[in-house]
Amino acid sequence: RRPKTDFGSEQSERFRLRFPPSLQAMPSTHSLSRRGASLLDVSPMAPYIHEHMVRAADADPNDPERYIGLCVAENLQMWDILEPQLNRNRNVQRGSVAYDAMIGSQNLREQIASFASEHVWGRSVDPDRVIVLAGGGSILETLFYVISSPGDGVLVPTPSYAGYWADLETRDNLKVVPVHTSSEDGFKLSPALLESAYIDAGVPVSALLITNPDNPTGRMMPSKDMNAAIQWARSHDLHVVVNEIYALSVHGDEPYEPVGRVIDNLATDVHEVWGFSKDFAMSGLRCGVMTSNNTDVLDAISELAYWSLVSGDTQHLLAGMLRNTEWTETYLREMRSRLRRSYDVTTSALDAADIPYVDGDAGLFLLADMRRFMDEATWDAEDRLWRKVLDEAAVNLTPGSACHIGEPGFMRICFATEPPEVVARAISRFAAILNNVCVKDT
Amino acid sequence: RRPKTDFGSEQSERFRLRFPPSLQAMPSTHSLSRRGASLLDVSPMAPYIHEHMVRAADADPNDPERYIGLCVAENLQMWDILEPQLNRNRNVQRGSVAYDAMIGSQNLREQIASFASEHVWGRSVDPDRVIVLAGGGSILETLFYVISSPGDGVLVPTPSYAGYWADLETRDNLKVVPVHTSSEDGFKLSPALLESAYIDAGVPVSALLITNPDNPTGRMMPSKDMNAAIQWARSHDLHVVVNEIYALSVHGDEPYEPVGRVIDNLATDVHEVWGFSKDFAMSGLRCGVMTSNNTDVLDAISELAYWSLVSGDTQHLLAGMLRNTEWTETYLREMRSRLRRSYDVTTSALDAADIPYVDGDAGLFLLADMRRFMDEATWDAEDRLWRKVLDEAAVNLTPGSACHIGEPGFMRICFATEPPEVVARAISRFAAILNNVCVKDT
Fold first, then answer.
1. Among the listed ranges A5-9, A205-209, B92-96, B351-355, which one has the minimum average pLDDT value?
2. Which residue in A30, A40, A98 is closest to B268 by CB distance?
3. What pLDDT score was predicted for residue A8?
């Protein structure tokens, strides 16, 4: 049994560890600052995360009826490929234990520039324009600190990555302004939707944050839509942040089209975020990456870098990994092929169960349409459905509410946390229960 | 020659890396937020740091006349002891690449609790009360975020660690209120000095930050003075943060007396900071530590932890190191013995040169009294003296102004960045120049 806190977490729902009640019995606690106390007022942990922590810790891996968590966007299917490379040449270097450049070692930034120019950004990026910080969350938090002012709104199309609310609102004091897209047209983002959200924001809006490939829909945004969104943002003088954290996790036939190829000129208003957590299946090593043409943005972030530094030893580890281009090619090929198989097995199981889903191109998840299993189109009904799948089938999905979807009844299925066969078994399990008892229109 | 950005930095003066001017030529930069732009307004890099970066990169290690930097508080004399332990059992663990608890893995926090309870804190601390973040700077920054409100003052006795200004003022929007102690009574901190600074602060004061053992004096605060300072703080209902980052770097005969032993009851108002950077000579691995009896403080910090996470692989590395108690005993013995030798050689060289200094007990530095080499007791004269030592002797000391000392003429000599013989040579070098040309009263 894993120790209590040795749980898998994820960028999107960062598990909190509240200290045990036994420690809270001390009388007359010296009081916190108001901003400190407000951190204690956060709403209780999302139920699906709480359930995941409790149940994953208790699950017996040999029990076919065991709990299956499909609610965390981690790729846990690549360890056999990662391990030999990571454990090659593992000597801690003398330079790794001493201070180095705050924005990442020259060595790592050169390796990232070389690798990501080819595989992620689709254009040649100078290492001097690359910043490395302790995880994608730190990149987003510092980037928005320097481009947006307290109280500003940031437009975020939904369905969305759940973690943006914490990344932008907690320390940066921004307000996420959701731009709800609709299932009716495949969650398409349009200037009309952006304009409407912008007008109704109620706060000054200073930036647009786009995730591409998208979480949780698993779709790549058509270049035409990306172009239109950025042109719209430019017409309002907004910064645009494109989070390409899943750029390499493509399982469809089409290659990913990086924003640097979609837009003629990224100028100084479009900033790109990437990292190792998703595409290299190593969320625990905490290495997020960004690049921008805006030197002021880079300079200002470098002033904040000291409080989000990456371990020098981990930087050395990752630089060595990227330098081994033969291995990275193998890794990418195998990673995509496994994602493809996971996606195919998952969608076959959903097809067999007659559960619709959004066709995906990329990412570690897909979005299932489970509206027909609800007795009413409400968030309460969605919550009951999620709870039923969990309690009766021991399968944990990410409810659409956590992804801030504009309409109830969708669930995110993370298919890379478990081997494909286990994902298929999980789907069969809950489909049997749902189809038996509450089918409305099959 | 080392690449441009592969310089040693230090917690106290975090080198900034501004992007090259060639990258700044882009027209019509999309503008930053006000708080972002204010990061660009920081005063130019401290001259002694700038000089260190430039000269260290150019120094030929085989040249006896080479540049010698004695201005950075790093212990670079322990690599032969560290290397075999760090490179033992270096396999990256499967669990290390996945998400784990935000405040540090259970394993690492248990090892730290066990080690630091015995060696640092002098009392038994529960692992559930230990928080691990990416470096001591991140610990301080998040801790003060939750205990102090924007605009609050924090009392900091001087001479002081230079980095507190950035740690408290940049993101936390606090104001450091210096409590100037005087060389006349050996930089003794007293309730009268605290009271005076408190009254004259001009802002509401919410906390007192004490460094013990102290940087830059290298002295351990007498228990009586520590007790008096904390009692004074309690009479004003302040939080007290005791930064014990040099707790193990003791080279004198007396053992360090941790605040947990000095004070009967740490209650919920005294918080302790420690880390691996100084005492384990690994500032580049970024692992800071704190403990507190205040569960609200721990809970609130855990809400901020996500943006300052330590690499899972580095956590594994450090947990394994601490588990090897035979090695840690050897390390501590050897580390202290080398510090002692460095201190002895350094003070002998100063004695021979007739340069007074503050008798030290701990730390990687001592404070030399170079007032007699100045033609007037001004900061300009101190700056000229520092520049003369640098230009004519190629030795870089930390000027007292950087340590916010209340009176000009003191210089910090970091004696653990170079082998003792090199430190002695550096002192002879600048002493010969100073004693020849501007001795006033030998």
1. A5-9
2. A30
3. 32
Instruction: State pLDDT tens for residues B113-144.
Output: 999 999 999 999 999 999 999 999 999 999 99
Q: Tell me the three state secondary structure of residue B155.
A: strand
3 state SS of B66: coil
Q: State the burial class of residue A419 (Cβ atoms within 10 Å of its Cβ: 0-12, 13-18, 19+).
A: middle
SS3 assignment for B262-331 = HCCCCCCCEEEEEECCCCCCCHHHCCEEEEECCHHHHHHHHHHHHHHCCCHHHHHHHHHHHHCHHHHHHH
Instruction: Note whether B358 and B350 are within 8 A (CB).
Output: no
CATH code, residues A42-79+328-437: 3.90.1150.10
Q: How distant is the Cα of B351 from the closest Cα of chain A, in angstroms?
A: 31
CB A310 within 8 A of CB A104: yes
- Give the whole-angstrom CA distance, residue B46 versus residue A176: 38
Query: What are the phi and psi torsion angles at A116 (to 5°)?
Result: -75, -30
The average pLDDT across A60-79 equals 90
Contacts 24+ apart (CB under 8 A), B55-58: B55/B394, B55/B396, B56/B2, B56/B7, B56/B8, B57/B1, B57/B2, B57/B4, B57/B7, B58/B1
β A365-369/A130-133 pair status = unpaired
Q: Which two tokens stand for residue B68?
A: 């010698």
Q: Select from B17, B36, B137 the Cβ nearest to the Cβ of A307.
A: B137
CATH code at B99-324:
3.40.640.10
Please tell me the distance in Å from A155's CA to the nearest CA on chain B.
16
Asked if the peptide bond before residue B216 counts as cis, ω within 30 degrees of 0, the response is yes
Bridge partners, residue B205, by sequence: B153
As a whole number, the mean pLDDT across chain A is: 91
- Tell me if B295 and A23 make a contact (CB, 8 A cut-off): yes
Identify whether the C-beta of residue B291 lies closer than 8 Å to the C-beta of residue B74.
Answer: no
Residues of A in contact with B263 (CB under 8 A): none
Phi and psi at A294, nearest 5°, equal -90, 100
Give pLDDT tens digits for A160-208.
999 999 999 999 999 999 999 999 999 999 999 999 999 999 999 999 9
Can you tell me the distance from the alpha carbon of A327 to that of A317, in angstroms, rounded to the nearest whole number?
A: 14
Place of tokens 């092929």: A337
Could you tell me the residue ranges of all domains in chain B?
39-79+328-438, 99-324
ipTM confidence score: 0.90
Helix A312-323 with A325-352: angle, nearest 10 deg: 90
Taking alpha carbons only, the member of A390, A371, A391 closest to residue A381 is: A371
Q: How far apart are CA A9 and CA A11, in angstroms?
A: 7
User: Is B281's CB within 8 Å of A95's CB?
Assistant: no
Contacts of A439 (CB under 8 A, 6+ apart): A372, A373
Residue A36 vs residues A166, A171, B146, B243, B381: alpha-carbon distances, Å = 15, 11, 4, 20, 44
Question: What integer pLDDT is reported at residue A20 of this predicted model?
Answer: 53
Fold classification of B39-79+328-438 is Aspartate Aminotransferase, domain 1 (3.90.1150)
Tokens coding A41: 């007022």
Contact predicate A33/B206, CB 8 Å: yes
**Token couple for A46:** 């999302």
CATH architecture of A98-323: 3-Layer(aba) Sandwich (3.40)
Q: Which amino acid is it at B357?
A: Y
Closest residue by Cα to residue A74 from A252, A424, A339, A360: A339
Chain B positions touching A206 (Cβ under 8 A) are 33
Report pLDDT digits (tens) over B158-186: 999 999 999 999 999 999 999 999 999 99
pLDDT digits (tens, 9 = 90+) for B369-396: 999 999 999 999 999 999 999 999 999 9
